[in-house]
Amino acid sequence: MAKTLFEKIIDKEIPATLVHEDEYCVAFRDINPGAPVHILLVPRKPIPRLCDAGADDQAVLGHLMLTASKIAAAEGHGEAYRLVVNNGAEAGQSVFHLHLHILAGRPLHWPPG
Ligand code: 5GP
To answer: Which CATH superfamily includes the segment(s) 5-93+100-104?
Structure first.
């Protein structure tokens, strides 16, 4: 299987501005930010979409949520941030390696587009 774009970033084959790295996940700044803080948090395991995750992935999914909160706090936005997961092309997913968008630093309106 060819590596996903995000696997190449995880493996440092493609440069990115990393903000966090641990045993289970890597976070880096989005190349085309939609907010002053726009970070992508990706599991090292290349789960294509959230709907492809299974019971074995429960721990890593929980880890992603807790890590997202820590990253938002480290960015100075621990009290106001948004997490987005686009699942499937029709929902706006363009990179098929599960990722959380962490958005902060401006008013975030609801509903999103
Ligand atoms: P999706 O549309 O799949 O939910 O989100 C993919 C995100 O990856 C987009 O926000 C896009 O700007 C970001 N992205 C695409 N290519 C690159 C890249 O090469 N480097 C980084 N840092 N972000 C990327």
So the answer is: HIT-like (3.30.428.10)
